């Protein structure tokens, strides 16, 4: 385009551009996976500050994970280098923390207050409640009350007060406070709320389908009904109901913000036609967006979705490893039904182009063993909080007691202290248990080190980041490794090759062994279907859905049937794969022996 007319919106398609050009008033952008929602938000923000002259200090972009915030920050640094550092790009929790640091005095805290991890919460709650069981109920009720605005059960009220007092006396907040406290402060002081509204005049929220009540309340306090709020998301990807998220806020956006304009993005740039078709079929029985329009734009070669039946989880993991090896070698890929041999133009695939997704973190073990047997490197991440991982807590405790360096000039970086703390911790483990426990510690160090390096010598920042972090925040897109992720952790990401393993009744939808299918909550089952939809739509070029006929769950081997969701995927877009490849391998071995 003509240089003089070149715009930061040039990289967008007409729908995306139309969405990004609306800079004033509330906007709802409804769009399916891979339609460039995140990309649209990013370009819109750059356009706003560079081409519309909006002060970056007035812009707030809310993402779902820290990783997503970082990525958006990087892109904005490339698009608008002078303005990017002054934009606020945050998750709800990091925004809450930022507000609380500023308002600490009003909440009875010092500006250097800490964030209690779950173990510390439990200690304090047990003291307040008298026993551990009541303590757990108390914490649970507290999260739920904050999440869903329920009352505290009367018998827990006193203990809850004692718990909160104890937190504050130790200059601590807990995770629920991070958004709950700013909401309380803003709700009780109209001037304060007005001053924040004045600061954040342009707000955008990615993954709006997964906001919870507290986050919603905070948004309503920050954005007036005619405010410049852009909400973007896909109701069919709402997967955090178990944590209090409520897709209802997305669905009623136009009632909350009556003047809102609505834009749909309809072009999918991520997935091949067959992957997209299969995904849409899988979600269709209970879709929340029946009028959805979504068409593939990619020019990827068009393999059908591979469905693999394995005897057990070990065989399933071998299938995954074998298929990765084949695709890495650019080798031919054998399908079972047609006997067709597709020579795959996958030259140039690296380990990082593969992701294995699963419903429960437990399932990762079999996959890790399979990849290890095949010598394939991997990185595994869940959506759990970092501080809840085994190994992390002892290191952090050690860091807290480590003497702070004396002379300012000799102040070591956070990384040195982290490594030293880990060595001490390991030394203290009794020799007999050391080897096993050290694995946890080393894994924890691997997770923590990149963060520590970023924080330089700023120990306080390091602590905040850890307190807020979930494992997937430390997922490294540049590492040359296969990614092992829970379906929850895979949200927003994309990979050329995706395996969704464990497509079984009982895992997708998830059900505890022994629980009857009749007892399942319908809304829960719908959410499980959405999880599969999220998993399938991460794939760009190849998607494999596998299931095992037998799997060890809770200590004993159990038979399982294929996920009922697979029945909705038409045979014209998928095919059975794997067996032929296994047989071929066997034959090759025999040939070599001859
Ligand atoms: P999800 O629902 O999974 O979060 P999304 O709607 O946020 O998906 P993005 O991650 O923003 O989608 O984009 C998906 C892919 O499509 C990315 O690789 C992105 O670079 C590419 N893409 C988006 N818009 C365009 C475009 N106009 N032209 C070319 N590629 C695009
Ligand atoms: Mg996205």
UniProtKB/TrEMBL annotation:
Presence of the UniProt keyword Transcription in the record: no
Domain UvrD-like helicase C-terminal: 273-541
Domain of life: Bacteria
Enzyme Commission number(s) of this protein: 5.6.2.4
Alphabetical UniProt keywords: ATP-binding, DNA-binding, Helicase, Hydrolase, Isomerase, Nucleotide-binding
Coiled-coil region: none
Chain sites annotated for binding ATP: 31-38
Catalytic activity, reaction form: Couples ATP hydrolysis with the unwinding of duplex DNA by translocating in the 3'-5' direction; ATP + H2O = ADP + phosphate + H(+)
Domain UvrD-like helicase ATP-binding: 10-272
UniProt family annotation: Belongs to the helicase family. UvrD subfamily.
Protein name: DNA 3'-5' helicase
UniProt organism field: Nocardiopsis rhodophaea
């Amino acid at each position: 385009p003509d240089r003089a007319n070149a715009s930061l919106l040039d990289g967008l398609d007409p729908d995306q551009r139309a969405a990004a050009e609306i800079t004033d008033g509330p906007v709802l952008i409804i769009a399916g996976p891979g339609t460039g929602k995140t990309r649209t938000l990013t370009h819109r923000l750059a356009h706003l500050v560079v081409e519309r002259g909006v002060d970056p200090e007035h812009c707030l972009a809310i993402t779902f994970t820290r990783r997503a915030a970082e990525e958006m920050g990087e892109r904005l640094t490339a698009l608008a280098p002078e303005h990017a550092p002054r934009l606020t790009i945050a998750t709800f929790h990091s925004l809450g923390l930022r507000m609380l640091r500023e308002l600490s005095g009003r909440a009875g805290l010092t500006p250097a207050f800490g964030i209690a991890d779950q173990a510390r919460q439990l200690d304090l709650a047990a003291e307040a409640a008298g026993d551990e069981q009541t303590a757990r109920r108390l914490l649970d009720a507290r999260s739920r009350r904050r999440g869903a605005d329920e009352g505290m059960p009367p018998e827990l009220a006193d203990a809850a007060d004692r718990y909160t007092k104890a937190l504050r006396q130790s200059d601590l907040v807990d995770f629920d406070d991070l958004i709950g406290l700013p909401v309380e402060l803003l709700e009780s002081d109209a001037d304060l709320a007005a001053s924040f509204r004045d600061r954040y005049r342009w707000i955008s929220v990615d993954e709006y389908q997964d906001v919870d009540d507290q986050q919603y309340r905070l948004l309503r306090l920050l954005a007036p009904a005619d405010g410049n709020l852009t909400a973007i998301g896909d109701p069919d990807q709402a997967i955090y109901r178990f944590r209090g998220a409520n897709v209802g806020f997305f669905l009623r956006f136009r009632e909350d913000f009556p003047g809102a304009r609505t834009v749909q993005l309809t072009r999918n740039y991520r997935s091949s036609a067959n992957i997209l078709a299969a995904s849409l079929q899988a979600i269709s029985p209970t879709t929340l967006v029946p009028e959805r329009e979504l068409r593939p734009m990619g020019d990827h070669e068009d393999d059908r979705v591979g469905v693999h039946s394995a005897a057990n989880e070990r065989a399933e993991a071998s299938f995954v490893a074998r298929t990765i090896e084949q695709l890495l070698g650019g080798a031919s890929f054998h399908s079972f039904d047609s006997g067709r041999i597709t020579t795959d133009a996958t030259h140039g695939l690296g380990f990082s182009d593969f992701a294995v997704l699963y419903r429960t973190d437990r399932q990762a073990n079999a996959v890790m063993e399979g990849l290890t047997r095949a010598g394939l490197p991997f990185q595994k991440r869940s959506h759990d909080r970092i501080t809840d991982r085994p190994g992390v807590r002892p290191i952090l405790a050690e860091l807290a007691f480590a003497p702070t360096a004396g002379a300012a000039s000799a102040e070591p970086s956070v990384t040195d202290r982290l490594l030293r703390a880990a060595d001490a911790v390991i030394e203290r483990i009794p020799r007999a248990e050391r080897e096993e426990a050290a694995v946890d510690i080393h894994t924890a160090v691997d997770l923590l080190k990149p963060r520590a390096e970023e924080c330089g010598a700023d120990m306080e920042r390091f602590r905040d980041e850890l307190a807020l972090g979930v494992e997937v925040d430390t997922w490294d897109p540049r590492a040359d490794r296969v990614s092992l992720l829970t379906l929850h952790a895979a949200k927003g990401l994309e990979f050329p090759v995706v395996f969704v393993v464990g497509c079984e009744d009982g895992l997708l939808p998830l059900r505890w062994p022994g629980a009857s299918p009749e007892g399942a909550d319908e809304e829960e089952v719908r959410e499980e279907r959405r999880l599969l939809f999220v998993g399938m739509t991460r794939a760009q070029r190849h998607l494999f859905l596998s299931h095992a006929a037998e799997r060890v769950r809770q200590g004993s081997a159990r038979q399982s049937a294929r996920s009922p969701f697979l029945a909705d995927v038409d045979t014209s877009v998928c095919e059975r794969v794997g067996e032929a490849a296994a047989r071929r391998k066997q034959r090759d071995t025999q040939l070599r022996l001859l």
